[in-house]
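Team,

Forwarding the record for the chain on the shared tracking sheet. I've put the sequence and predicted structure together so nobody has to dig through attachments.
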Amino acid sequence: MFQPSDADIARLQAELEAAIRLHQQGNLDGAEEAYKRILDRAPSQPDALNLLGVVLAEKNRNDVAVDLINRAARLRPKDANIHNNLGRACVRARRFELAVDALEHAIGLSPNLVEAYGNLIQAHRSLGHMQEARHYIRALRNVKGGSITADYEEARLFSDLGQGEEARALLMRITKEQPQFGLAWQSLVKLSKVKPGDPVIDDLVSAIAKTPEPSANLKSMCYAAGKVFDDLGEYDRAWEFFTRAKRQEPSTYDHERTAAHFRNIAATCKPSFFEARRDFGVDSKRPLFIVGMPRSGTTLAEQILASHPDVYGGGELEYVAQLSSHLAEYVPSGKHPEALLHLGPNIVAAFAYRYLRKIGAINADTARFTDKMPHNFLSLGLLRLMFTNLQVVHCVRHPFDTCFSCYTHDFAQTHSYNRSLEGLASYYQLYRELMEHWQTCFGDRIHTLRYEKLLDNQEVQSRALLGFAGLNWTESVLDFSGTERRVSTPSGWQVRQPLFKSSAGRWRHYAKHLEPALSAIPQRLIP
């Protein structure tokens, strides 16, 4: 067995320290290559595995990052920082249950690791575990240096639950005590529309002027400032801040790779594919999937449905993505979508029952349960195999409004297309083409809900939506803004307001900035 000499170990340590310096300088490509060179010579070096995983998570390659950091955690099981990094990578990858396990382990090893508490609270919030989130917020207040993070996480929890004044009080306190806490500013301005004379305006601009560039805090603060000046009608100034926010992190969107994946899905999941598997799946009518681009009205659609007594709004669940990512475990020949070709009826049924158990653990009482993960449109082929009574609500908004709204929001790293207008336009076109393919395959199993038509006539569109879902009409859905439920998406505060037609056509205020990128979207997709 090869035993490294003292000189080998010293050389490896020097290379690791050099790689870390590149990482700290923000040279992610250089750090990635340096960590890989170390692992070529020492495949089980836990620091290199851990830090390469951190780099890849920062570059939006989350699944690979989770695998690498998980290997490091197995090699160094008592290292709380590695378990925290694993949990954070799992949150980025929306693998929240695995995140909870890793982060609870990290806190068990290091009860004063503030960052792990924040990541754990976020994971529990994302799973809808409000009691657990509150527990760890209280626990964090007893950790040295944890009070600000606890205030911020409690404010986010209040915001999710529609308790705006409580959230505002905490966030105002944070921005006074730590004016460069970017996420606090971002959460604060989302609570309501900012009006002229609000002291938040000058305080935020002043804090931005004192924040170094590039930085994650500055990114969050610039998104916040963009929203503020949009509220004030100062659109050119708002655009300056939105574009400055985008400059704070590099674009990692690979259009060719994404387009190839979308084409592969359509080529695999043809009508003949489903006809040959018409006996697959279970006949449950409970799940109702809401899909579309982010900012297209998916949260609004779910809020309307959740206002019906026979519907539970499940929010953005990661269960379908988890099933898709596990396909290779059952069919070693490939991942989604190729693995679909090799699934047998028993595996498909097992997937369906697993999904039903998971949503049943959240709510087992209502006739319908909505799953509002917008990007489930990528997995409709698997869902059609799983559920013989598959029903999908497809939310569509004017392409320019959709892309503009996406651009002005700070989405998770998984939305790499949202780093530029060009990426947004190309991704939007791919998404619509794939939805046209699904419409060909599924026909009236897909109900298209157009945002602008909903604004024009809420009752007519709501009646059609309930009719599609097999639900009796109730006036309660017209008062959806009063429905009390947790909403953690960027539209949270908006769905607690009545419908206003002013939300349509907002892109026109920015028309000169949106050209020529959005002009690449085909005319046939524009109403």
